[in-house]
Amino acid sequence: IFKFLGAISVDLGKDKISPYLLTVLTPLYRELNSNYAEQDPTLKNLAQEIIELLKKLVGLEAFSLAFSSVQKQANQKRAVRKKQRALQTVANPDIAARRKLKRHKNKAETRKRKIESLRPMHKAKRHRSHALKDLAMVE
């Protein structure tokens, strides 16, 4: 998709790409600022190359205005999501409690996996699943 965006930008030229600059920059900005674990470095490099191409194509001033606008929109969305999460904690404490329990459980599992990878001889205790026991007819 990034290659397609770059090719379309070059094909349209400076005048015709200007109205679509925000639309083109949004996924590129998202890729550059993402910090998830399984991130592909080639994708990040490609996004950076296309941003440099757009910078040369439309000019530094127009690019800077569009990029700052995209950056501002992303920060606003992030702030709205954070505010909604905080409000949900107050409005629905049961859902917030379930989310917190799930997060703690995942953290414990991650810790156990890390211990097992560092010390292969040591087996961390794992929570037993009682799914089969629940299904059985116990008298």
TrEMBL record:
<feature type="compositionally biased region" description="Basic residues">
    <location>
        <begin position="120"/>
        <end position="130"/>
    </location>
</feature>
<dbReference type="InterPro" id="IPR052575">
    <property type="entry name" value="SSU_processome_comp_20"/>
</dbReference>
<dbReference type="GO" id="GO:0032040">
    <property type="term" value="C:small-subunit processome"/>
</dbReference>
<protein>
    <submittedName>
        <fullName>UTP20 protein</fullName>
    </submittedName>
</protein>
<dbReference type="GO" id="GO:0030686">
    <property type="term" value="C:90S preribosome"/>
</dbReference>
<dbReference type="Pfam" id="PF23099">
    <property type="entry name" value="UTP20_C"/>
</dbReference>
<feature type="region of interest" description="Disordered">
    <location>
        <begin position="120"/>
        <end position="139"/>
    </location>
</feature>
<dbReference type="InterPro" id="IPR057525">
    <property type="entry name" value="UTP20_C"/>
</dbReference>
<feature type="domain" description="U3 small nucleolar RNA-associated protein 20 C-terminal">
    <location>
        <begin position="1"/>
        <end position="116"/>
    </location>
</feature>
